[in-house]
Structures are given as C-alpha cells and as structure tokens.
Write a structure and sequence with these properties.
elongated; alpha+beta; 21% helix; AOC barrel-like; 171 residues
Length: 171
C-alpha cells in the first residue's frame, strides 16, 4: 500500500502544477515580453551639440562642494536636429570637477520624424571635459516621436559643445 500511495501523491502534485492555467499564462506573457524586447530595432543617430548660452546659479555654498543650478540652451545638428533647453543640478568641487543630473526637452527632428521628447542625463565634468549618459524618458515623445525610447550620451568640452548620440527605437 505504501508504494502505491507515494507515486499517487507525486502524480497528483505533478497534475496540479502542470495544469495550473496561471503558470502557463505567466509563461506565455514572459515569452511575449521577451520577444517584444528583442524585436525592437535600434537605430543610432548622431549630432554636434553646440551651447548657445548658459547660466550657472549657486544655491548652496556652505561647507564642502557648491550646489549649482545650470540653465543651458543648445542646438543639435545632424541626424538629431533641433534645439533644447536643459536644466541641471551640479555638485561643483574646488578643483572645478563636477557631477550633475539633468533634464531637457528636445524640439526638432530625429531622422525624418518631427516632435519633442525629454532626455534625462547624468554627467561628469573633469579637466574641462564633460562625459554624459542619457535616456529618453518613457512616454515623453510627441508628434511623430510618440512612443520613442532610447539611450545614449555625449562627450566634449564643458560649455563648449560636444558630440552626441542616441540609440533609439519606437514602441
């Protein structure tokens, strides 16, 4: 009797887990999500970014590095073509190196598409040069750029202009 009971319990457990529709549904959803991520074709766009104007306003300077708000107006020329006004919060050290975070709304063309989108960035300034990473804020695209997603960055002389890129796709 004991030999019959143990296989029966194991068989019943296997039937319960294999026949669970929620597990199959979750597996199907995970598979679909994975194939959607893999199906996005990424395109790289590049641009020369030129600073048209900038303003730095310290807002906290007591002890240690200064906290500074930056306002930067830029133009983009190339496959990313348009303008942007950026706001950044910066930690400025005595040696003029800095770490900052930024948000900017781009207005113009990306490839052949017209619209706007928001970039969120993280930047490091050292020895007069800036290096940054950024990503398109999900849901921020308008016009022909609705559904835009992407990530990229830029490098160049701080406040002097830089070379930027964006690897992008549409959802």
């Amino acid at each position: 009797m004991r030999r019959i009971l143990i296989p029966s319990i194991v068989s019943l457990g296997a039937l319960l887990f294999a026949g669970n529709p929620q597990s199959k549904e979750q597996t199907d959803m995970a598979t679909a999500s994975k194939s959607q991520r893999e199906s996005h074709t990424r395109t790289r766009a590049t641009a020369k970014i030129t600073v048209q104007s900038s303003e730095a306003k310290p807002y906290e300077q007591t002890g240690g590095p200064s906290l500074v708000e930056l306002r930067i107006n830029e133009t983009f020329t190339g496959e990313i073509d348009g303008r942007s006004e950026a706001r950044a919060l910066q930690v400025l050290r005595d040696d003029k190196s800095a770490s900052q975070v930024s948000m900017q709304r781009f207005r113009g063309k990306l490839g052949e598409r017209q619209g706007t989108f928001v970039l969120q960035g993280s930047e490091i300034v050292e020895n007069g040069k800036i290096k940054a990473t950024w990503f398109v804020v999900p849901g921020s695209g308008t016009g022909d750029l609705s559904g835009l997603r992407g990530e990229g960055g830029f490098e160049g002389g701080f406040g002097k202009g830089s070379d930027g890129w964006l690897d992008y796709w549409f959802e």
